[in-house]
């Protein structure tokens, strides 16, 4: 089985998960950033990794996904949402819906990923009057995110994709 793994990563979290998954793929598989816009026609399966923006894959990934048809697909992402959270599940569900029924999604994984320090700096200054204010709940979530993706996340991602090959 020829597998293409493409990923989009702004700050390195998704790249880390992508490289861990790539380690368990069969010889001959190809890993490639979405920026290189690789052709996927020759592959039996495509694994797509993205960072989450507004609950969906980032724009570059959305654009790449648009044209894919008739393929078996695996999806994985990293996001600011807690591991095993409803928000994470919802992102995977919405991503699957964007690919099906013209493709078949056969594996999925999502985990938390540390959030860009520059963005956190901006969030810090949002007072209670801001339309999207900083809260104690968010502060805790951002603190937890700083620990991810960790070794356990990488192992779990490998497990998911090991199973399907
Ligand atoms: C501009 C921006 C927007 C983001 N929007 C969301 C979001 O809507 N939901 C979410 O859960 N995480 C969001 N995040 C967090 C990222 O998805 C998360 O940190 C991810 O692991 C980044 O992956 P990367 O290091 O591969 O770029 C956002 C991060 C940035 C920088």
UniProtKB/TrEMBL annotation:
<dbReference type="Pfam" id="PF12641">
    <property type="entry name" value="Flavodoxin_3"/>
</dbReference>
<dbReference type="InterPro" id="IPR008254">
    <property type="entry name" value="Flavodoxin/NO_synth"/>
</dbReference>
<dbReference type="InterPro" id="IPR052200">
    <property type="entry name" value="Protoporphyrinogen_IX_DH"/>
</dbReference>
<dbReference type="InterPro" id="IPR001226">
    <property type="entry name" value="Flavodoxin_CS"/>
</dbReference>
<feature type="region of interest" description="Disordered">
    <location>
        <begin position="123"/>
        <end position="157"/>
    </location>
</feature>
<protein>
    <submittedName>
        <fullName>Flavodoxin family protein</fullName>
    </submittedName>
</protein>
<feature type="domain" description="Flavodoxin-like">
    <location>
        <begin position="4"/>
        <end position="161"/>
    </location>
</feature>
<feature type="compositionally biased region" description="Basic and acidic residues">
    <location>
        <begin position="123"/>
        <end position="147"/>
    </location>
</feature>
């Amino acid at each position: 089985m020829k597998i293409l793994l493409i990923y989009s990563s702004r700050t390195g979290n998704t790249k880390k998960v992508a490289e861990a998954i790539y380690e368990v793929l069969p010889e001959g598989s190809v890993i490639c950033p979405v920026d290189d816009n690789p052709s996927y026609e020759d592959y039996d399966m495509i694994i797509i990794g993205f960072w989450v923006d507004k609950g969906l894959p980032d724009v570059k990934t959305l654009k790449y996904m648009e044209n894919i048809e008739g393929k078996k697909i695996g999806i994985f992402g990293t996001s600011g949402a807690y591991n095993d959270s409803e928000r994470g599940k919802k992102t995977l569900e919405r991503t699957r819906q964007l690919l099906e029924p013209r493709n078949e999604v056969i594996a999925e994984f999502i985990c938390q990923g540390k959030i860009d320090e520059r963005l956190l700096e901006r969030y810090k200054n949002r007072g209670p009057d801001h339309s999207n204010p900083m809260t104690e709940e968010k502060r805790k979530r951002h603190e937890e995110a700083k620990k991810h993706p960790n070794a356990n996340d990488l192992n779990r991602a490998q497990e998911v994709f090991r199973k399907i090959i």
